Amino acid sequence: MHEVERHRIILAEVEEKPIATLSYLVDLLGASEATIRRDINDLHKKGKLKKVRGGAEALHPPTNVSLVGRPYSVNQTINARAKRQIAQAAVELLEDGMSISISGGTTTYFMSEFMRTRKLQVLTNSFVIAEQLVKRSKCVVTLPGGSIYRDQNIILSPFPDDISSRYYASLLFIGAHGVGPQGVMEADPQIVQAVMKLMDQAECRVLLVDSSKFQNRSNLLVCPLSKIDIVITDDGIDAKSRKMIEAAGSQLVIAKNDVDSVEPAG
């Protein structure tokens, strides 16, 4: 990853957390500790953040409550090509007239690029997905009530009984922070709660994750892999993860590497 891109991601991280630790940034960026220390020093000297023991913090640390995890704007740039390939494969499962649910996330967002000609009933808790579908598709879109989390472009309700728990979907499309032997994982408990509501009302559950997610872990489980009917990922998935999906009884779909041949919605 280029230095400019690392600096942009580091600055986005410190704007979201009281302190972005050195170890966290090393894992996030896949760079050496020495490289991240140098980046933090450079940004500190330029007056863009404050270097602190064990990491870095913003010049004006955030006081607002936010969800755990990277901002949407950062996630959208990571593995974008693979995410679009996966999203295109997911849209191929759709048929006009279906009632579907799409959970917020950057991989699921790319689905909306390929849904321009579809006529579907769509429930989503992502207002960027909703905006794209309202402007550029023939879908009927429903949003649940709740609070808007700007950094993740998502709407979440603290109440157990909202439209999400009463909406039937033929297909549910979700992303994840990580996937492992324990199951599908998310970084924030509110996202776990929101996804579980959608899962209870879906006939078929489809997980959209790029291959890097099989290396990520969290202490928050959404569900075991056995509750996922279809897993769509890219061809970077390793043999161990393939076997894990097969052992769980989930169907594995490897997205084709021809996404550029499809013109996305403008």
From TrEMBL:
It holds the Pfam family DeoRC. Keywords: DNA-binding, Transcription, Transcription regulation. Residues 3-58 form the HTH deoR-type domain. InterPro entries: Carb_Metab_HTH_regulators, DeoR-like_C, DeoR_HTH, NagB/RpiA_transferase-like, Tscrpt_reg_HTH_DeoR_CS, WH-like_DNA-bd_sf, WH_DNA-bd_sf. Gene3D superfamilies: 3.40.50.1360, Winged helix-like DNA-binding domain superfamily/Winged helix DNA-binding domain. One of its GO terms (molecular function) is DNA binding. This is Transcriptional regulator of sugar metabolism. It comes from Gynuella sunshinyii YC6258.
